[in-house]
From TrEMBL:
Keyword Ligase: no
Catalysed reaction, written as an equation: O-phospho-L-threonyl-[protein] + H2O = L-threonyl-[protein] + phosphate; O-phospho-L-seryl-[protein] + H2O = L-seryl-[protein] + phosphate
Organism lineage: Eukaryota, Rhodophyta, Bangiophyceae, Porphyridiales, Porphyridiaceae
Organism, as annotated: Erythrolobus madagascarensis
Enzyme superclass (EC): hydrolase
Protein name in the entry: RNA polymerase II subunit A C-terminal domain phosphatase SSU72
């Protein structure tokens, strides 16, 4: 029931699981989810179906065109919810060093520590809504 919800990444690129933990698939922010989906399906439909990455990308491409980087947005927010301490730290750093205040309204930044898996992300999303 929330009308204005955005999702961002804070890293230098989008990293998705690859064939090994030290071999992620790396894409630039702004790369369409549809492109990522097709690329990974072509690389190994079986692997990326089994690990849930294709399902996640399919869901994401129905919501928005491409992933966006937090540091490149300039929207005002009432609440910012992060799901990992390093992301929380990056958001706070961005507020402290890169943003020019347009208003002096408070922004609540909340971290809910959630393991970066599809199952945990689903329960983390439910927790955030509650």
């Amino acid at each position: 029931g929330f009308e204005q919800v955005w999702s961002y990444g804070t890293g230098s690129s989008v990293k998705l699981p690859g064939t090994a933990a030290d071999k992620p698939n790396v894409y630039s922010f702004g790369t369409p989810y549809g492109y990522m989906y097709d690329d990974l399906r072509d690389k190994s439909e079986t692997l990326y179906t089994q690990n849930g990455v294709l399902k996640m990308l399919d869901r994401n491409r129905k919501i928005k065109t491409a992933p966006e980087r937090w540091q490149e947005n300039h929207l005002p927010f009432d609440f910012v919810i992060t799901f990992e301490e390093r992301v929380f730290d990056a958001v706070l750093d961005d507020f402290a060093t890169n943003r020019h205040p347009r208003t002096f309204e408070p922004v609540y930044v909340i971290n809910l520590e959630v393991k970066d898996t599809h199952t945990e992300a689903a329960s983390g999303a439910t927790l955030a809504v509650q």
